[in-house]
Amino acid sequence: MNNKIIVVVFLLISQTMFGQIQQKLSVQMNDCKGEQFVLVRGDEGGSFVVGQEKVDDNGMLSFVWEGDYGFYRLVSDLGNIDFYLSNSDFHFSLLGKPVVGELRFPANDENNQFHYYLSEFNVLNQAIGNLRENLLTLNERDSSYKELYAEFKSVQKEKKVLLKELWRTHIDSWPARMALAQQELIPDIKLKGKKYDDYYQKHFFDYFAISDSVLQATPIYYEKIGKFLKVNHIEELIKAENYEGINDVISKLFWLTELEPSSQKYLANYLMSRYPEQKVSKIYHLIVDAYKVMNTCEYVMGNKVIQNRIQNSRANNAGWLVPNIDLYNTLDGKIQSLGEVNSDLTLLIIWSGTCVHSREMLERIKDLYPEYHEMGLEVVAVSLDSNLGYWKDMVSQNYYPWVNACDTEGLNGTTANMLSIYVTPSMFLIDPSLKTVAVPQTFFQLERELMEFFK
C-alpha cells in the first residue's frame, strides 16, 4: 500500500472511543485478493484512519472497530470506495476493481443509488479526460483536431446536462448531493495558464457547499477542502513564506462557509490540525484569527487596540504564564483571584451573555463538567457583561455550577487587557502554577485536550 495516498489526501488524527458502537464491515471483492485497504472516517476535526486490512485468499475484506454510523471511505492503490454505513454489521460486494467495478449494497440501500450516479459521472469524466489528452497532442489547425474538439465539447455538454438535471430533480437526496460534491467542471481545452487556473477555481465549488450539513465531516468534505488548498498553491505559498497570500486563501475558504457556524468550526478544526501551532505557528494563528473574527463575538474597540490584542494573543500558547487576575463580583465571594482556584487543571473561559457563541460553548462545557470535575477540573467563567443584574440572571437561569465572575468593564477592562482578549468566547487551560497547558479555540480542541490531560 502506498502510504502517500493517505498522507496527501487525509489529515490523520486520533479517534476517540467513548460511547461508540462496535461496528463490523465485510466486503466481498474476489478481484482484489491480496490488496490492502485503509478504512477512513471523518469527524469534527478532520479525517482519521480506522484501520488497515488486506483482502484474504477468499476475497473477503473485514474490519471490526468501535465507532459511529455515517460516511466512510476505503482507500487503496486501486482507487477509493465511498459509502454510508447504516448498521453495525454492514456488508457489500465489489465485482471488478474500485472505480471501474460494479458495487452491490443491500437491497433498498441508498448506496446503490449513490454509486449509480458516480458511475455515470465516471464514464463522462474518463471520456473528457481522454479526449483532452488527445487534443493536447494535435495541432489546432488539423481537421482531426476540429472533429475531436467537437466531440470533446459534446461530452462536456452531456456532463453539464446531467449535473443540472441531478441538481434540479434530486437535490434533497443525500446520494445525489454526495455524488455532485465530487464533480468538478474541467476547463475548456483552449484555456491555458492563468485563465485555466482562474476557470478551475471559479467553478471548483459549483456542486459542493461547505455549509451543507450532509457533506460536513465526511471524507469527501475534507478531500475537497484539501484539493482547494492545492489548486490555490498553498504549499508553494508556505515555502515562499508568503503569509499575505496564505491569509488570502484561508480567508477565501472561511467566506465560502457562508458564515454558517458549524461549517466554520469543521473548517477551523481541520485547518488547525493540518497546520499545528507547534510546527507552523504563523499559519496556525492566521487560521485562528480568521475563525475568531467570523465565528465569535467582537466588541467595538479602536483598531489599534484590536490589532495589538491580536498580536499579543499569539504569545498566549502552551507554557505561557497566565496573570493572576482578580475575579470581580464572584457570586459566593470565596475566591477572589485565579491563583486561589484549587484544581489539577483549570479551564478559564472569558464570555458574554450577549454572545450566542459564548452561550453555546458554556452549554457544551456544562455537559462534560461533572465527569471532568471529579477528575480534578475546575471551570472559571469570567463574563464581560456590563450589567451585573443581567449577568446574575444568566448564570442563575442556566445553572452554571462552576466559579462565576464578572468584569463589568468588558473588553476595555483589566481582565481582557491582561489576557489580550479581543473576542468572546476565549479559553485557556491552566495548571496549578498558572501556566497554560493549551489554548483551545473550539470545543473539539477543548475536549481533545481534556481527554489527553486526564487519560
TrEMBL record:
Residues 316-455 form the Thioredoxin domain. InterPro entries: Thioredoxin-like_fold, Thioredoxin-like_sf, Thioredoxin_domain, Thioredoxin_ResA/DsbE_sf. Pfam families: Thioredoxin_8. This is Thioredoxin domain-containing protein. It comes from Labilibaculum filiforme.
